[in-house]
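Fold it.
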Amino acid sequence: MTTTYGLRATPAGFMVAMLVCLGTGAASAGEQPETLDFALFRDGQAFGHHSFRIYRDGDRTVVASTASASVTLGPFRVFSYDYDSEEVWDGDHLLSLTARTDDSGAKYAVRAGLGPDGLKVSVGGRQQTVPAAVLPTSFWTRAAMTAPALLDTRTGDVDHVEIAALGSETDPSAGGVLDHYRLSGDLAADLWYDRDGLLARAHFLVRGADIDYVRTSPQPGTRMAGGRLPGGS
């Protein structure tokens, strides 16, 4: 079954009011996060990594994410990408997001916080308010597959996509049964989630290149400790 999502973001003339995260920050002393680590491949060649650190406190989840990738041609670096972000969730609801990207020298900074009228997003000198149900394109959680639209964590734009749930697939190399989703529209991607609702692998078409995420830790099929995560069952 294919569901079509989309909305037009409405500009707003006020700054984002950021919510306070956990009292001492995501990585408070003594707190051990759960991790999701991915190797990144471009047209079959390794070119980077992406890691998620997941901190939990009851229904509150904080996710710190870092990614780095580069492409060289002989002695020259022709592409580089560095990214870091922090998301704060309450159950399946996104409370706040901060993200910084350096895309081959082009720098972006996105901030978002939940307010009474929805999710208030600020990037550069531009502000907009989008429905609270809009979720980020970090894709670490299956919750994004039920969102009415997606917030691009690099640019702050709202992406119009179609999301097709293609059912469950058995993949022994990825730890067993995974749920497969296909995105089209502003984003072209195939995403697979494990039984915890966590990203197990992914395929994107970016600037004409095939980008693959291969999870290296924990191995798909290994259940995460603790309670339910956003998008989990």
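The radius of gyration is 17 Å.
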